[in-house]
Amino acid sequence: MTGAGDDTKHLAEQTISGEKVYGGVLLHVHRDSVLLPDGKPATREYIDHPGAVAIVPIVDGGMILLERQFRYPLGTVMVEIPAGKIDPGEDPFDTARRELLEETGQTAAEWRHLGTIHPLVAYSNEHIELFLATGLTATQAAALDDGEHLETFMLPLSEALEWIRDGRITDSKTMIGLMWAERLRAGLWS
Amino acid sequence: MTGAGDDTKHLAEQTISGEKVYGGVLLHVHRDSVLLPDGKPATREYIDHPGAVAIVPIVDGGMILLERQFRYPLGTVMVEIPAGKIDPGEDPFDTARRELLEETGQTAAEWRHLGTIHPLVAYSNEHIELFLATGLTATQAAALDDGEHLETFMLPLSEALEWIRDGRITDSKTMIGLMWAERLRAGLWS
User: Which domains, and CATH codes, for chain A?
Assistant: First the structure.
């Protein structure tokens, strides 16, 4: 299940030593000394992350449930699919159910794991497990985490794809989730 | 050109103070004190990044030029489209031409900017400018940066998409670039 092929050991880097150089509220930064494939030394810095989930929630009739959320690093409100961090020891399926309910107040009749996304391989080990949620039912009011402020709205899948094309949607997990859902809808993927 | 709508000021967070808490070889981490929309204080941590480019290089006949590269944070070799960081003051188009030549030895007859990707909005301000490069010509041997080790190979676009579906390609910019190229090829987008 790797596209890297069998003979990729000659590309590998070897860890010599490592330390945690910053431990914050959210971010945990590591700096390791490594040996490159040619034997030269190098420094690798990266964020250690517990992993996350993202959910493509499809409402009856093909509408997608999306969120508007202020993203501080970018200083702007982004349009995204629901997502959240996996708690220690939590099954990603349970994270997905929990986050969809907390952020949108919806439960889904059918859940499906679509795939794994690595959003930023250069300096984060974060993986995002991507789910498709269909058969949505409004169950309760959204119960946002303390300090979490977001709004939900609905958009036809066709229009959400147009928002990717014209630059109104630029969040990577959202772009991938919507294009993946469209390939399923079109029968290109099963 | 924002999908956030006109009335999103009530979601915004206000910066009170900020400091750089880690300045490394690659990573620059900031920690800011902010006021949330409800007036409560919070801490925001994020990576400050100069931005990057990624290129979907299409060879004659619809083959895609891909790379295998060891990604230390994940401890594995990843399959990716060519990409690289924007130098200070550099035009992203020039970055794209430079990175394609350095990493693959190819020049392209036609260049097109497809869009912008924000790979990780929760804790990085990185933006990736996505380009399509067609009419490739092998110009020189690849001239990798010091410490850069990667291999290139070609795959039909249809097979590369299958690698997304079955989990052999999980890098976000690569997933987006390939699915975008496929929508152009299929005439869904122009």
Answer: 9-47 (no CATH), 52-185 (3.90.79.10)
